[in-house]
């Protein structure tokens, strides 16, 4: 470790030791350009970006011809998985997010239909990327204006939009004569048009900064397995080897392990426990054939578990995981351990894939699914948590000293380091709705005075999360912004892929179902303030909301359903169509159907949506639900749209996020009286509830819905994992 630190010091330490005329820890090499053989100088600086990885910063300058450029290259190895970073840029402060872009990274901004192919590596910011695009596109504009005016016009429109994002007073140094000038204004005078920046890097060596912590609601990271084509492009697999791989596949086999009785531990002598199962597969990192070994083990005073181990001899990729080998428990288990000294850190711990872990003293909360299944010691799992967090946090030397978010996270890491050293007492809580987790009792079979074990009834959320109702164990290795059904009356055996809250996904679903895109489209609502609401095109015909459904929100929904059942509510316009949800993970489709059916949008005749609307006439909510179950085309539309998102999870993925829909409808009494002064009402349509719910008077639909969410929903939310989409006039 000391050698690595000496070879790759931090930028800050280099800057402190450097004088005005010299740069330490840099290598200087004579170089030349294609146009000038007299030679220049390339400086190579080996440095470390704190909490990220080692990089090589290169700077070339020729004193003779004036050519100069800078580049950054990763010095570390290619990561086992590719990464997709997504950041929502909602204010000009987001333009300062730092970006590490490797030479294999593709940058895209979907709102502008802009894709930047892989190029030389950079250490820059979001603003720096925008400025580079403006500079590169502007370079040949005078020539395009003469040779290809239509292309010139399209590119110039894009340049104008990008310059409005920057909204500064600096004129481009190479502003071409005859090109239209962009009016300048201060950042306060020109509102920023929100957009999304995506970094797709199959090597995993790119990064975009988050604000504060990895819970930044405007920041998202997804990892994925590289395709064979990507592995070939990176040189990890040759084309010939890739073609031969399918022929190397073998059938699963078993190996019987013979051991002396004296060496057997953990009940390993019991018959089939001595068999090791071998499953052939393909390495997710390099694409070569490998074997995954599985063995059943019995933990004393607990139950059977299955240990899985994968090791690639070619690239060194390794992975270990533990899953329960027993039946699903009827009740959950909560284990609370008071750690008093370092001896407690040696306790064995089995954290299943459905178990959450928390340490209240340092506000550490790991949701179910984090780290997957692990069988290790308490010290080992705390060390893994520390490594995972410290490796993925970006806080470079260019960060301001008074950055509260960075300081807060550094303080948290300091506390976590103290905890894993047991410098002072703390409490560890394991909460598993399937009771498949274990913490060693040093006094077994007698009770442990420092450990409390509580058998409890799972909450509705835990039941849904653990997939008890469908009698299947969820893998829970996926974490992202997806909707899960929370209905108390899921009667169908069907389970769909969770739908991502993303305009691209929702529009793909709606357009294939039959919505005419020129009439209406789904778009982002970036916030609940009037300034952000004003950016949404008008008219707005419906609002689809994704929100966290646990804790106080879930309790309030249950209480409201009970009150409405007893006391009733104001009559709702009978033309409103509500469908009962009976399909797991289908709340996204339910929200879309409710929005489109009740919004008077233009629909293609004889399309799936048009036929479904006709078939729903004069049917009960339950009959409409059965109609949806028996219409395979909607399942196909849902699956295709869900798979087109940034993160395509399996159908057994579960999260605590849920879709609901808001539409506007005339007051039922006013419609009956035919006074011609119908009072518009906001109606919430959620297939997991007992029926449509009146949310009050409506004057400005979008603002009134935003006010309701701000005052009634957000205060009860356990987190800010909200996503709001409007069905509105299409963007120009």
From TrEMBL:
The keyword Cell membrane does not apply. The record marks 581 as: Transition state stabilizer. Gene3D superfamilies: Peptidase C12, ubiquitin carboxyl-terminal hydrolase, ZPR1, A/B domain, ZPR1, zinc finger domain. It comes from Dentipellis fragilis. It comes from the Eukaryota. GO terms for cellular component: nucleus. The lineage of its organism: Eukaryota, Fungi, Dikarya, Basidiomycota, Agaricomycotina. The active site is at 587 (nucleophile), 658 (proton donor). Residues 20-31 have a biased composition (Polar residues). Its EC number is 3.4.19.12. The keyword Metal-binding applies. GO terms for biological process: ubiquitin-dependent protein catabolic process. GO terms for molecular function: cysteine-type deubiquitinase activity; zinc ion binding. InterPro entries: Papain-like_cys_pep_sf, Peptidase_C12_UCH, Peptidase_C12_UCH_sf, Znf_ZPR1, ZPR1, ZPR1_A/B_dom, ZPR1_jr_dom, ZPR1_Znf1/2. This is ubiquitinyl hydrolase 1. Acts as a protein folding chaperone for elongation factor 1-alpha.
């Amino acid at each position: 470790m000391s050698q690595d630190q000496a070879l790759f010091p931090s930028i800050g330490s280099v800057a402190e030791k450097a004088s005005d005329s010299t740069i330490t820890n840099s290598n200087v090499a004579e170089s030349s350009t294609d146009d000038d053989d007299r030679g220049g100088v390339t400086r190579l600086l080996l440095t470390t970006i704190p909490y990220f990885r080692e990089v090589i910063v290169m700077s070339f300058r020729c004193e003779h011809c004036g050519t100069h450029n800078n580049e950054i290259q990763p010095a570390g190895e290619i990561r086992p998985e590719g990464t997709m970073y997504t950041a929502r840029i909602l204010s000009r402060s987001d333009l300062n997010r730092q970006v590490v872009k490797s030479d294999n990274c593709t940058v895209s901004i979907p709102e502008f239909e802009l894709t930047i192919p892989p190029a030389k590596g950079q250490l820059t910011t979001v603003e720096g990327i925008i400025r580079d695009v403006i500079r590169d596109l502007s370079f040949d504009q005078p020539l395009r204006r003469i040779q290809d005016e239509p292309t010139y016009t399209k590119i110039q429109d894009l340049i104008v939009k990008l310059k409005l994002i920057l909204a500064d007073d600096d004129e481009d140094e190479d502003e071409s004569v005859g090109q239209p000038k962009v009016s300048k204004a201060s950042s306060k005078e020109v509102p920023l048009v929100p957009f999304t920046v995506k970094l797709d890097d199959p090597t995993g060596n790119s990064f975009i900064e988050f604000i504060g912590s990895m819970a930044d609601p405007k920041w998202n990271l997804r990892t994925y397995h590289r395709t064979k084509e990507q592995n070939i492009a990176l040189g990890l697999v040759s084309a010939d080897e890739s073609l031969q791989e399918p022929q190397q596949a073998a059938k699963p086999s078993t190996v019987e392990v013979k051991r002396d009785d004296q060496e057997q531990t953990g009940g390993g002598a019991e018959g089939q426990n001595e068999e090791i199962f071998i499953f052939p597969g393909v390495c997710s990192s390099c694409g070569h054939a490998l074997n995954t070994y599985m063995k059943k083990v019995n933990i004393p005073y607990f139950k059977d578990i299955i240990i899985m181990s994968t090791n690639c001899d070619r690239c060194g990729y390794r992975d270990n995981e533990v899953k329960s080998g027993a039946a699903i428990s009827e009740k959950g288990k909560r284990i609370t351990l008071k750690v008093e000294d370092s001896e407690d850190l040696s306790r064995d711990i089995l954290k299943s894939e459905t178990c959450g872990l928390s340490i209240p003293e340092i506000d550490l909360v790991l949701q179910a699914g984090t780290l997957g299944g692990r069988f290790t010691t308490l010290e080992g799992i705390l060390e893994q948590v520390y490594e995972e967090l410290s490796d993925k946090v970006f806080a470079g030397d260019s960060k301001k000293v008074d950055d509260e978010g960075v300081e807060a996270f550094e303080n948290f890491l300091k506390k976590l380091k103290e905890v894993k050293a047991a410098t002072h007492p703390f409490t560890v809580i394991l909460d598993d709705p399937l009771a498949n987790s274990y913490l060693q009792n040093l006094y077994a079979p007698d009770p442990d005075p420092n450990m409390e074990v509580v058998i409890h009834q799972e909450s509705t959320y835990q039941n849904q999360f653990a997939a008890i109702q469908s009698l299947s164990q969820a893998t829970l290795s996926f974490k992202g912004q997806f909707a899960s059904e929370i209905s108390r009356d899921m009667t169908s055996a069907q389970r769909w892929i969770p739908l991502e809250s993303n305009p691209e996904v929702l529009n793909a679903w709606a357009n294939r179902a039959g919505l005419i895109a020129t009439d209406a489209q789904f778009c982002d609502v970036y916030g609940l303030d009037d300034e952000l609401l004003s950016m949404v095109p008008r008219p707005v015909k419906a609002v689809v909301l994704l929100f966290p459904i646990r804790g106080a929100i879930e309790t309030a929904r249950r209480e409201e359903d009970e009150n409405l059942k007893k006391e009733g509510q104001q009559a709702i316009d009978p033309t409103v169509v509500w469908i009962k949800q009976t399909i797991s993970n289908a709340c996204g489709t339910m929200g879309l159907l409710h929005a489109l059916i009740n919004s008077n949008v233009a629909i293609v005749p004889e399309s799936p949506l048009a036929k479904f609307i006709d078939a729903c006439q004069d049917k009960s909510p339950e009959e409409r639900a059965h109609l949806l179950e028996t219409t395979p085309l909607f399942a196909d539309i849902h699956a295709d749209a869900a798979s087109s998102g940034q993160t395509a999870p399996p159908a057994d993925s579960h999260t605590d996020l849920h879709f609901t829909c808001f539409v506007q409808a005339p007051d039922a009494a006013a419609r009956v009286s035919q006074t011609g002064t119908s009072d518009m009402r906001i109606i919430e349509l959620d297939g997991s509830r007992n029926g449509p719910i009146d949310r009050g008077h409506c004057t400005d639909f979008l603002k009134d819905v935003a006010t309701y969410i701000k005052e009634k929903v957000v205060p009860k939310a356990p987190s800010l994992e909200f996503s709001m989409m409007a069905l509105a006039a299409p963007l120009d």
